[in-house]
Amino acid sequence: MSEECAAAVNINQDYCGKCSICHSICPYEAIKKDLETGKVEIDLQKCQVCGICYSACPVMAIEIVYYDYDSLMKYVDGMREKNGSETLVLMCRGNSPATCEIEEILQNKGLKISNYIPLRLPCSGRIPTEFVFKALNSGIKNIVSIQCEDEFCRFKEGTKINARRIVLGKALLEQLGFNEDALKVVKYSRKAVYETEKCVGCDKCVFICPYNAIEAEEFATPKINYEECVGCGACALVCPHLAIEIKGFEFEDVLKRYGESAKKLKTEGKFPLILAFCCQWSEFSALDDAKSLLLKKKAIAFEIPCFKALDPVHIVEALHSGFDGVMAVVCSKEDCKLEEGRETAERNMDVLRDALKKMSMHERFELLTASPRCVGEFNQKLDEFTKKIAAMPPLKLAVAETRTHV
Q: Mean pLDDT for the chain?
């Protein structure tokens, strides 16, 4: 982390009561404690900005940039007044992509909810019972928390921590006279979707899966072990017939979404037009407020579940669709939530760079690492890349109109 970088999490020592709850609950051992004085401090190099410590501090001594309680309540109140909804749906970033198929997820769990307030967070573990009480007191009548399954929490202990809080919260709410259905929990983890009729049995997915979640079957198509699948997207990237994809990140849908955006913005004369593929853990604000990014930077932020799911074909297609530059923003190796198999993603980028060089487009693509713990890091890198692309001639949309799928 650069010295100019403003930290996203900080402990206000004037408020800290040295109770050490944050120290004991941090899943990354990112909070150091002085055994003699009891003073606790955050090790920003280890911090993953999950917000679990923030939600656990009994005296609100921990200050955080993203998703603080006042901002969250302001959002809930504003949305409730706007659409009149009395249901709040909390989603973990890991189980809900930006396209937010919330209704489908809930319906599969036996819940039919159409008018609701969606609230997307990095981890369910950063929601304390105090926020639940405030939301219910503000006029919200039902809260549904979509949590990752325990073993698939990207922040290790987030789901388990929140599950314990909700059990205690439900008991207290019932004592206060609230309906027992006022607070519900849904467990859901995003995994690979397999259409066996498209599979040709090449077994590429078997060899590429870093978590051994796909097994080869003699005289049959491969078998996915969903108890091991973490939804990283590595299998989807190598499948030649799109038989395996990650729900919410389907190849053809992604292709259509950025292709249509490029065509529309190019005809409006936007320049330079930038597409940023972002790992959903490398950046928070741009992915949760993508429209503001476009208005300010003439850029589109497109979410991917992991570096391993970054398909080089999308980089090439984006440039042929009219984007003047494409950047990929991913976590560093040390910060990667799904570290297994990262070397495959890095090899893919080497092949991509060689291909772009042959097409004289290598300067229009950059692979960058970023972390939400460094406030403004993403915007700084986007500004630098935008200035670089602005010095180049614009790419013509006409190329995309005559191009077929790679």
A: 89
Q: What are phi and psi of 301, to 5 degrees?
A: -100, 125
Residue 330 has pLDDT above 90, yes or no: yes
> Whole-angstrom Cα distance, residue 229 to residue 234?
11
Predicted TM-score (pTM) of the model is 0.88
Q: 262: which 2 tokens?
A: 């490029």
- Distant-in-sequence, close-in-space partners of 251: CB < 8 Å, separation ≥ 6: 236, 242, 245, 311
Q: State the average pLDDT over residues 171-191.
A: 88
**For the chain, what is the HEC assignment?**
CCCCCEECEEECCCCCCCCCHHHHHCCCCCEEECCCCCCEEECCCCCCCCCHHHHHCCCCCEEECCCCHHHHHHHHHHHHHHHCCCEEEEEECCCCCCCCCHHHHHHHCCCCCCCCEEEEECCHHHCCHHHHHHHHHCCCCEEEEEECCHHHCCCCCHHHHHHHHHHHHHHHHHHCCCCCCCEEEEECCCCEEECHHHCCCCCHHHHHCCCCCEEEECCEEEEECCCCCCCCCHHHHHCCCCCEEECCCCHHHHHHHHHHHHHHHHHCCCCCCEEEEEECCCCCHHHHCHHHHHHHHCEEEEEECCHHHCCHHHHHHHHHCCCCEEEEEECCCCCCCCCCCHHHHHHHHHHHHHHHHHCCCHHHEEEEECCCCEECHHHHHHHHHHHHHHCCCCCCCHHHHCCCCC
pLDDT > 80? residue 289: no
Residues 211-214: contacts with CB under 8 Å, at least 24 apart: 211/340, 211/341
Taken in order of first residue, the domains within the chain and their CATH numbers are 6-63 (3.30.70.20), 69-187 (3.40.50), 192-246 (3.30.70.20), 251-401 (3.40.50)
Tokens standing for 27?
Answer: 């899943």
Do 257 and 303 contact (CB within 8 A), yes or no?
no
